[in-house]
Amino acid sequence: MDSLESLTRQITGAKELNSIVRTMKAMAAANIGQYERAMESLGDYWTNVSLGLVAYLRHIGLESPIVKQGENPKKGPKSICAIVFGSDQGFVGQFNDALSEYVQESLSAHEGKMEIWTVGVRVPLLLKDRGMTVTKEFNLPNSIHAITALIGSILLQVEENRENGSIDEYYLFHNHLENEGSYRQEKSRLFPLDVKWQQANGRLKWPSQKQPEVIGDSAKLIGSLIREYLFVSLYKTCTESLASENLSRLNAMQRAEKNIEELLDDIGHTYHRLRQSSIDEELFDVVSGFTALKKDKKLGP
Questions:
Q1: Which pLDDT tens digit goes with each residue over 103-152?
Q2: Using H for helix, E for strand and C for coil, what is the string for the chain?
Q3: CB neighbours of 128 closer than 8 A, spacing ≥ 6?
Q4: What are phi and psi of 41, to 5 degrees?
Q5: Is the pTM for the entire model greater than 0.85?
Q6: Which residues does 48 contact at the CB level (< 8 Å), separation at least 6?
Q7: Cis peptide before 141, with omega less than 30 degrees from 0?
């Protein structure tokens, strides 16, 4: 049975842990806010860049800015690269586990060459445990200001692979924040910007009745639009993943706070019950001693 001293130490430790949990919860809530604002601004920018690409392709009458006219598409299984955004830190519930399971299910049917790039130190460990080979690992940015450096590193590797023709298609895997205060796993196609891309983005309509015109060097323009599209797509994916990570951490901290409060309540009841029992015993000893003294006094010497 616990003593009063032991229960006091447990109460003190639980209160200190609860203070840490509350701090982490506040930090997660603040981080969600800044990543959500970044997502909102990037959403408008991504739409504008996509509109520019769609308008350009319609203007020059090309189906694809990447596949040259007259070039036969590659036959047989295509080589793909999956870029998976996970987390570095823990206390995120099933954030990485659910994502790694989703990646495995999505890629299980692929028969061609496959590369897997990961962002964050936890997802590659889970993917390797599932028998998948991770070919490249990137560090997860620790703040919104460090995302640009990560995207630059990924794009450099994409450009290198494009030049030697080792990868045909790129896909992004990440946790996507939803309006209901939850997140879900999502897969999106990053590259190439071909007929498939046009079909997916064909619903985008130019916001005015005037048709856009291409001015200046068209080769430089399409190159700039593609670079901006890839950058903003990766940036948007990274911010969505970081926002989902902090939401998962916030939910985990809320559950932890509830459990700690319940534990404190149970320990508190036990402490007060044991304390009252100790007081009752002390009072009983005092009353017993007083009664004995009265009897001795009546009997006399």
A1: 999 998 888 889 999 999 999 999 999 999 999 999 998 888 899 999 99
A2: CCCHHHHHHHHHHHHHHHHHHHHHHHHHHHHHHHHHHHHHHHHHHHHHHHHHHHHHHHHHCCCCCCCCCCCCCCCCCCCEEEEEECCCCCCCCCHHHHHHHHHHHHHCCCCCCEEEEEECCHHHHHHHHCCCCCCEEECCCCCHHHHHHHHHHHHHHHHHHHHHCCCCEEEEEEEEECCCCCEEEEEEEEECCCHHHHHHHCCCCCCCCCCCCCCCCHHHHHHHHHHHHHHHHHHHHHHHHHHHHHHHHHHHHHHHHHHHHHHHHHHHHHHHHHHHHHHHHHHHHHHHHHHHHHHHHHHCC
A3: 134
A4: -70, -40
A5: no
A6: none
A7: no
Reading the block at residue 23, the tokens are 């701090």
Q: What is the chain's Cα-based Rg?
A: 31
Question: Any idea how long the chain is?
Answer: 301
pLDDT in tens, the chain (301 residues): 577 778 788 888 888 888 888 888 888 888 888 888 888 888 778 778 877 777 777 666 654 444 443 344 556 678 999 999 999 887 888 899 999 999 999 998 888 889 999 999 999 999 999 999 999 999 998 888 899 999 999 999 998 888 888 888 899 999 988 876 788 999 988 887 766 666 666 566 667 777 667 776 767 777 888 888 899 889 999 999 999 999 988 888 888 888 888 888 888 888 777 777 777 666 666 666 657 666 655 555 5
Closest among 232, 96, 93, 110 to 174, alpha carbons compared: 96
Please give the structure tokens belonging to residue 190: 């990053």
Q: Would you say 233 and 46 are in contact if contact means Cβ atoms under 8 Å apart?
A: yes
CB-CB neighbours of 39 under 10 Å: 19
